[in-house]
Specification:
seven-stranded mixed sheet, binds S-adenosylmethionine, Rossmann fold, alpha/beta, 10 helices, globular
């Protein structure tokens, strides 16, 4: 009897302690992203790697801003395994009002993306296509969030343009062939309040890309920078900024005059150009 009273007393005490602990230290809402064990695969499809993780980390870093942004339409170009678009859909899941599109030039990737989305209970409209061909009219000016981990590795130009696994990395000269095709398409698809999160390698000359985008009225900010053993990755966020013109012209003039200090100087310029959001 005494033992049973004592154990009930201990249980009540434990429950009360847990209750007061969580009242004082409320548990943070865990941000859900795609789980690797549920990400589907195929030998011809790019598996999530450091670059994919950097892009999802950028989305997680901006989670609150993304929720406040209330995107109606989100899109990924080059979805591969579906890890990124699935993570984005899970990050924004509590809103329940966003609609998702994902494209890939590789038909196996589109199938694998479908399986990954399904395994996580989220949905996106999928298209096997070159960048966004077939969606230009339907989505012009409507995409509020676009995410892209493009093929960015510098390769001989002949390697660009396939639809197998090589399409995941073959970026042509300076890794810019596909990137330079995606940017004007993104400009056409993004809404007035649209955000573009795009991953670049240092070899892609991201500052030059930022200056090019600045000419089109976009501000830029590095959300994630990561140096792995093999590469230096940057996830850059772009958004239209009506005040950009005047400051942009000054910065462009400075950069065009050349920098003796190379990449470090360019990065500091890039940070200076950034407007915190
Ligand atoms: C570096 S992988 C990224 C895959 C995935 N988003 C990730 O982060 O793990 C690039 C993806 O872009 C796709 N891709 C390459 N060129 C493309 C194009 N012109 N149009 C659409 N997708 C393309 C590739 O097939 C590949 O799946």
């Amino acid at each position: 009897m005494l033992a049973s009273n004592l154990s009930s007393y201990m249980v009540i005490l434990a429950v009360l302690s847990l209750f007061s602990y969580f009242t004082i230290f409320p548990p943070k809402m865990a941000s859900r992203i795609a789980q690797i064990r549920l990400v589907s695969s195929h030998p011809q499809v790019y598996e999530p790697c450091d670059d994919s993780f950097a892009l999802v980390d950028a989305l997680l870093a901006d989670r609150k801003k993304l929720l406040d942004h209330r995107p109606a339409i989100c899109m990924e170009v080059g979805s591969g395994s579906g890890y990124v678009i699935t993570s984005l859909a899970l990050i924004l899941q509590e809103m329940k009002t966003s609609y998702y599109f994902a494209t890939d030039i590789n038909p196996h990737a589109v199938r694998v993306t479908h399986e990954t989305l399904e395994a996580h209970g989220v949905h996106a409209e999928l298209l096997t296509t070159n960048i966004a061909a077939g969606l230009e009219k339907r989505l012009a000016g409507l995409v509020d969030v676009m995410v892209v981990n493009p093929p960015y590795v510098p390769t001989p130009e002949e390697e660009v343009g396939g639809d197998g696994i090589a399409a995941a990395w073959a970026g042509g000269e300076n890794g810019r062939s596909v990137i330079d095709k995606i940017l004007p398409i993104a400009d056409n698809l993004l809404s007035e309040k649209g955000w573009l999160y795009m991953l670049f390698l240092a070899a892609n000359d991201p500052l030059q890309i930022c200056l090019q985008m600045r000419d089109k009225g976009y501000a830029a900010k590095i959300v994630v920078q990561r140096a792995t053993e093999e590469e230096s990755l940057h996830v850059i966020k772009f958004w239209r900024d009506s005040d950009i013109r005047m400051e942009g012209n000054e910065a462009v003039a400075t950069a065009k005059n050349g920098s003796p200090r190379g990449w470090e100087f360019l990065l500091s310029q890039l940070s200076r150009l950034s407007f915190r959001r």
